[in-house]
Structure formats: structure tokens, C-alpha cells
Write a structure and sequence with these properties.
Blueprint (H helix, E strand, L loop, with lengths): L1 H10 L2 H5 L8 H17 L2 H11 L4 H24 L6 H14 L5 E2 L12 E4 L4 E4 L4 H11 L6 H24 L3 H17 L1 H6 L6 H15 L12 H17 L5 H15 L3 H30 L6 H9 L21 H7 L6 H15 L9 H11 L4 H16 L8 E2 L3 E2 L6 H14 L9 H32 L10 H5 L5 E5 L2 H7 L10 E5 L4 H9 L5 E8 L8 E7 L10 E4 L8 E3 L1 E7 L8 E7 L6 E9 L3 E11 L4 E6 L2 E6 L5 E2 L3 E5 L2 E10 L3 E10 L11
């Protein structure tokens, strides 16, 4: 393990350490560079600095609140337009939006329809008993997002979060400075400076633009810390329970939004409450009770959603999803050990980093990659992390600073047991994004406490430091971190996989819409839309699943939405168009189903199954491959087989197995066995009676992986029979 870490360290290029630097490549980056240069000039010019200080730091509080809130919201709206280009970009964000649509309709789950494969898929939990589908993420963020879905403006939430974060960061910075013992004038400067760092943080702009949960989580984090800190020196010894109750509500909201992130403010706020009241039991109970009461609504929301999706209040939808969609068993785990790391969702990462499981050294590597990515998140420039650490150190005598530093530290440790680093350009180290407001305050604490020629810096000295630091942050954004956000903008063709304006352009107001990507489905699907009155989106599989859903919905007007990246993929253009589409009816009532269309499967045991590209002549180019986790135990995967009506059919399975691997295909009491040869073969037909709806088919594998390519169902008169031979 140590050797593999050393090899990984040697493989890291200089570019990966220093990041991308270069001439600004888009108008926003050029504007940031120009603004940074102008601020640098202001910092070096006393008269200009004095005028700017009077405008920014001495303006009325209400005017500053409106200005900083409006500025943050405007910049996040600009990010939606210039970087996201009109809609959510990564699959997590599209799933959050689908969950919000479900909540906006007053439900926690939605009907999968028939066939269920037309709606279930990636990041969606399927309940076979109720034939319902739900998103796998905690409910806190999509519940808030659903309010904006209801008014038709889901992307408005992010900018409003941006405004709230800037204002809350201002107030938090002010209270921390008061706890440090600074004067009201210095404290006000500190708070406003922290808000300005919130404004210029490019990563925070992303998390308050895309439909991701970290912007809301950061707001909950900042509010929790704000409410437990005294408003002034005079109120530091008062014991009103209301602010503590509000802190508990904020942490409870964080529990419902990102449960792991709630650990950090729990520890930090608990520290503040305990040290404020002392160890006397009654005083301590009175201090903590309102916070515990405030936690309850968030906890109940989380438990209620988990019960609605999994049937168990303490059942994690994410664990349920990965148990059927990925492998090996237990791969998606918060903890350490062998077999951790899911090979389908995070396969390249797991094979490169977790060959020996997720142990101490692997956790160090994952945390190190997160920290490296996080260095530039707070203020666009990696060396600013020195100010975060310095602020925590120089302000260590303040309980408020110790609490903020503790919160940041616990956040880092809390995510160490999760194996996947979660980093991506533009989003930064997103598991640490929740503490960005606290880091902005710590940066300002460092600026306040850097000693110059005098022990106590003057207001003019502070203005120089703040303006110069903001200038560096803007210049770094222009020539450095803007390239990460440009990479996010250009990924996957440079535009979301679905935008409703494409339908409006083609005058499509109702009917059935087939989409062929997970992103596109989650963006387009209206869970409770009727194809007779609104557009209902379903998954395109390219087999008779498409005809079945078309027929089941009454054969409405039907369209196909295509979104394909052209050129180089990451930076190429996206080809998008809507066209009329009629799924072909089965010839002679013979149904053909691609096995990979049934992923995620209904169940799997002693192995894992997911779609893979096949070098053989597989239909559609892919197969559903089942891999046993042990050579001594047979693996099994169960998928759904839809049928139009009660009838006798001949089921022909096309399979492939590694040489020597043994497998069986079983459906409705009939089964056929085979031995793998490395080639695709059609097995002996199974004559069975299938009821209308969906039946279960199981594939087993022993001694090596086997794959199911497709199923062909042909009407066959006569009675069904039992077991067939090979």
C-alpha cells in the first residue's frame, strides 16, 4: 500500500499540482482580471482606497445588505447563464431536480408505469411491490427546491441562497470579530470583508447556481454558527433559548439535507453551548434543550422520506440503490474495509486508488485529494489556505474562532470514511463546500490579526489588506480558476442534455417524449404529467420497451429528443433536436428486449450486474454482465420481463459466458442451463405462461462472469412446461 501511494505521488504531474494558468478564455474571466487589477490599483492609492472604504465599509447597514445580496444573486444568475448555460449539468443535479418535481406534486415517490424500465434508471430507487420510483438523495434540498419548481423557476433558488449566504456571512464575521474583542468599527469591516469573499468565491457561485445541495448546506452551517454566537458583548451572558432553538433548526435542516455534514456544527455548537454555561447539569440542560428540540423537524423529515422510499425509517435510499445497481456487495459504505468502492459508478477511481480496499492509507489519499482541490475554493487561489489556518491560530483565544476552526476540522474528518473524493472542476472539493462561509470569516480574522509595524493596525491598514486580498482573489479567478469553470461549461457538449425551450421551438405541448440519457430523462420527466395534456418523458431503449410504453399510454403523439456531443466530447458542440417518432410495432407480436434496458435490476445476490460494452456481436453493442464475487458461490441477478397479455410464449435468451463459466436462465418455473464459450449463443426456448404485467427472470453465474444480451418472446400455443435442458 505504501508503495502504491508512492507510485501515485510520482505520477502526479506539475499541472495537476499547480492547476491551469493562462490568459482569460471568456468574458467573465476577463472581467474578473480587470476588476482585480483595478482593486490592486485602489489598494495602492490612498485617496481611492479611502473613497472605496467609505462606500463599502461605512455605508448604512441596510444599503450594504441590499447591495451584497443583490450582487451575489446577480453573479449566480450570471453563472447559470454563462457556465451552466441554462440548466443543471451533472447527473446529481438533475436527480435533485426530479426529486423536487415529485415533491412539488405532493408525493415522495412516483409511479414507474408500464414497463417500469421506461422510467427507472440511474440514481433512482425502484420499489417493485408498489411499482414506484424515487430519487436517492436526502429530502432536505429537493423539498426546498420544490417550492421554486411549483412556481416554475427552479433555478431561482440558487441566486437567493447566494444572497442569503453573503448576508449571513457578513453577520457571522461581525459576531466573530466582536468575540475577538474588536471595536464595532473593526467588527463591521470584518463582517463586510467576509461577505465580499463570499461574493468573489467562484466555487460558491457554482454551488448557488446548479441544483446541488451544498449551497443550502453552507447556509444552514453558517446560520447554526451565527445563532449560537452572542449578538454583542452585552448579550454574551444572556440565556434566551430562542437563538439556540434557531441553531437547532438549522442543524436539523442540515441533517435532512446532508446528514454527514451535520456532524460538524453539532460538535462546534455543542462546544459553544457547553463552554458558555459551564458544567453545572441544570444550566447545561437548559442550554442544550432548545437546540435538541430544533433538531427534531429535520430528523423527522429525513426519517419520513426514508420510510416512504425504503419501507424503513432508518433505511438509506442510497444504500438500497447501490445494493441492486452496483457491486461488489456493500461497496457503497461509510467506513473502512475490503470491497469498498463501487465498480460501476466509480469504477475507474476504485481500480486506480482502492485496489487494496479502503483503509487508513487510502483514506489519507482521498482526503488529501479533497484538500488539494479545496485549496482554491474559498478565494480562488491556493495560498489563501494559509490565511485560513493563520486565522484559526491567531484567533485561538476566541471561543468563536475555535468553534469555526473546529467545525472546519470536523467536516474534513467526517467525510474521511467515505471512499469517493467527489471532486470535479467548477464544483471544487464539494464535500468541503459546506464550510466555505466559515473559511471566509477565518480569512478575515487572519487579515485582522496580521501584525504590521504597529501592534494594532489602523482602519486604513485593514482596508489595504482587505482590498489587496480581494484583488488577488479576482486576478486568480481571471487567470487561474476560471479555467476549471470553463471546463465545466464545455463538458458533454457544452449545454444541458435537455432544455424545455427545444420543445417550445417545435411547438410540442403534449404527448410522449423519448430521451436517451440519464441526465435528459431526469431533466425532462414530469412525474405526474399526462401525455394527453402535457409532455411525458420516458427512456428510449431502442427495443420493444419503447413500443410497450407507447401502447400503454394510448399511442399519443410521440417525439424523440436527441442530445449528442459532437467533436471532442468535452469541448465539442451539442447536437440537439426534437423529431416526430413512432416506435415500430412488434412483427408478429414477437417482443425483443435488450437486457441492459433492465438495469438497475430488481435484485442481485452474491455478485453484481451492470451494462458493459461487448466486443462480441451483441445487439445494441452492450450486454448485462453478471460477475460472481466468489468462485465458490453462484451469483444471481433478477430482472423484469414485461408482457402485453396473459399468454403462452417461447422465451429465447441470448447469453455469453467466459469459457468454463456456468449459468442458468429461469423464468416462471422454467429454466435452461449453459456453459460459457466466450461467444454469444441463443439458448433453448423456454415455453412459459406469462401474465400481463411484469414477470421475474433470473440469471445465475458460477465459476466466472456470464452476460445476458437480449430476450425474444414469441407467442406459442400450448401449455407451458417445467425445466428445459441445455
Amino acid at each position: 500500500m505504501v508503495r502504491s501511494l508512492a507510485e501515485s505521488a510520482r505520477a502526479v504531474s506539475v499541472a495537476s499540482v499547480l492547476g491551469t494558468w493562462g490568459v482569460p478564455a471568456d468574458p467573465v474571466a476577463r472581467a474578473a482580471l480587470l476588476g482585480g487589477v483595478l482593486l490592486a490599483i485602489v489598494a495602492a492609492t490612498p485617496r481611492a482606497r479611502e473613497k472605496l472604504g467609505a462606500l463599502v465599509f461605512a455605508s448604512p447597514a441596510r444599503s450594504f445588505a441590499w447591495a451584497i445580496g443583490f450582487g451575489a444573486a446577480l453573479l449566480s444568475l450570471l453563472y447559470v447563464n454563462q457556465v451552466l448555460r441554462g440548466g443543471p449539468r451533472i447527473v446529481d443535479a438533475t436527480t435533485y431536480l426530479l426529486q423536487a418535481r415529485t415533491f412539488a406534486s405532493g408525493h415522495a415517490t412516483f409511479d414507474a408505469g408500464f414497463p417500469s424500465a421506461s422510467t427507472r434508471g440511474r440514481f433512482l430507487v425502484y420499489d417493485e411491490t408498489s411499482n414506484t420510483v424515487a430519487g436517492l438523495f436526502p429530502p432536505g434540498y429537493p423539498l426546498v427546491l420544490s417550492l421554486f419548481v411549483a412556481i416554475g423557476q427552479p433555478l431561482l433558488l440558487g441566486p437567493l441562497l447566494a444572497a442569503a449566504l453573503a448576508i449571513v456571512t457578513w453577520r457571522l464575521g461581525r459576531r466573530v470579530a466582536i468575540d475577538l474583542g474588536d471595536t464595532d468599527l473593526v467588527a463591521e469591516r470584518a463582517g463586510r470583508a467576509a461577505a465580499l469573499f463570499s461574493l468573489v468565491s467562484a466555487v460558491l457561485r457554482y454551488h448557488t447556481a446548479d441544483t446541488m445541495s451544498h449551497g443550502l448546506a453552507a447556509l444552514y452551517m453558517a446560520l447554526a454558527m451565527l445563532f449560537v454566537l452572542p449578538r454583542s458583548r452585552e448579550s454574551s451572558t444572556r440565556s434566551s433559548p430562542f437563538p439556540t432553538l434557531l441553531a437547532g433548526l438549522a442543524i436539523g435542516g442540515l441533517v435532512a439535507t446532508r446528514p454527514v455534514s451535520a456532524l460538524a456544527p453539532l460538535v462546534a455548537c455543542g462546544y459553544l453551548l457547553v463552554t458558555r454555561r459551564g458544567p453545572e447539569p441544570r444550566a447545561l440542560a437548559r442550554a442544550i434543550a432548545p437546540a435538541l428540540l430544533g433538531l427534531l423537524p429535520g430528523i423527522l423529515v429525513l426519517l419520513a422520506y426514508q420510510h416512504a422510499v425504503t419501507g424503513h425509517a432508518f433505511g438509506s435510499p442510497q444504500r438500497v440503490y447501490y445494493a441492486t445497481s452496483d457491486g461488489p456487495a456493500g461497496c457503497f459504505t461509510y467506513g473502512f474495509g475490503k470491497g469498498i468502492g463501487c465498480l460501476f459508478e466509480h469504477g475507474d477511481f476504485v481500480r486506480a486508488q482502492l485496489a487494496d480496499g479502503y483503509g487508513f492509507f487510502a483514506a489519507l489519499g482521498t482526503t488529501g485529494r479533497r484538500l488539494k482541490m479545496h485549496l482554491a475554493d474559498a478565494a480562488n487561489f491556493e495560498p489563501f489556505v494559509i490565511l485560513i489556518v493563520l486565522g484559526a491560530f491567531r484567533g485561538r483565544k476566541s471561543r468563536a474562532v475555535r468553534a469555526l476552526a473546529t467545525c472546519v476540522g470536523v467536516q474534513i474528518v467526517a467525510y474521511a470514511p467515505f471512499y469517493f473524493d467527489g471532486n470535479y472542476p467548477g464544483g471544487g472539493a464539494r464535500f468541503f463546500a459546506d464550510v466555505l462561509p466559515l473559511e471566509h470569516v477565518l480569512i478575515v480574522v487572519a487579515l485582522l490579526r496580521i501584525r504590521g509595524r504597529a501592534d494594532e493596525p489602523t482602519l486604513a491598514d485593514l482596508d489595504v489588506r482587505i482590498v489587496a486580498a480581494l484583488a488577488v482573489a479576482l486576478i486568480a479567478l481571471g487567470i487561474h480558476t476560471s479555467h476549471d469553470h470553463l471546463a465545466l461549461a464545455n463538458r458533454e457538449g457544452g449545454i444541458p442534455y435537455f432544455l424545455p425551450d427545444e420543445l417550445a421551438r417545435e411547438n410540442v405541448e403534449s404527448g410522449l417524449l423519448f430521451v436517451d440519457t440519464d441526465h435528459g430523462f431526469s431533466l425532462a420527466h414530469e412525474p405526474f404529467a399526462s401525455p394527453s395534456s402535457r409532455v411525458r418523458a420516458v427512456r428510449l431503449h431502442g427495443d420493444d420497451h419503447d413500443w410497450l410504453v407507447f401502447d400503454a399510454l394510448g399511442r399519443p403523439p410521440t417525439y424523440r429528443y436527441r442530445a449528442r456531443a459532437q467533436g471532442s466530447g468535452e469541448s465539442g458542440d451539442m447536437e440537439r433536436h426534437v423529431a416526430s417518432f413512432a416506435p415500430p410495432a412488434p412483427e408478429g407480436n414477437v417482443l425483443r428486449f435488450e437486457a441492459e434496458a433492465e438495469w438497475p435490476p430488481l435484485a442481485q445476490e452474491a455478485g453484481y450486474a451492470f451494462p458493459v460494452w461487448s466486443t462480441a456481436d451483441a445487439s445494441g453493442g452492450r450486454v448485462l454482465r453478471l460477475t460472481p464475487t466468489s468462485s465458490a458461490i453462484a451469483a444471481r441477478v433478477t430482472i423484469a420481463v414485461p408482457a402485453l397479455a396473459d399468454q403462452d410464449v417461447d422465451v429465447v435468451a441470448r447469453v455469453m459466458g467466459e469459457p468454463g463459466a456456468r449459468g442458468t436462465v429461469a423464468i416462471v418455473g422454467a429454466e435452461v442451463s449453459f456453459v460459457g464459450t466466450g461467444a454469444l449463443v441463443d439458448l433453448t426456448p423456454l415455453r412459459v405462461h406469462l401474465p400481463r404485467g411484469e414477470s421475474r427472470l433470473s440469471l445465475t453465474a458460477e465459476g466466472g462472469p456470464v452476460a445476458l444480451d437480449r430476450l425474444v418472446l414469441s407467442p406459442s400455443p400450448g401449455e407451458s412446461h417445467g425445466t428445459s435442458g441445455p
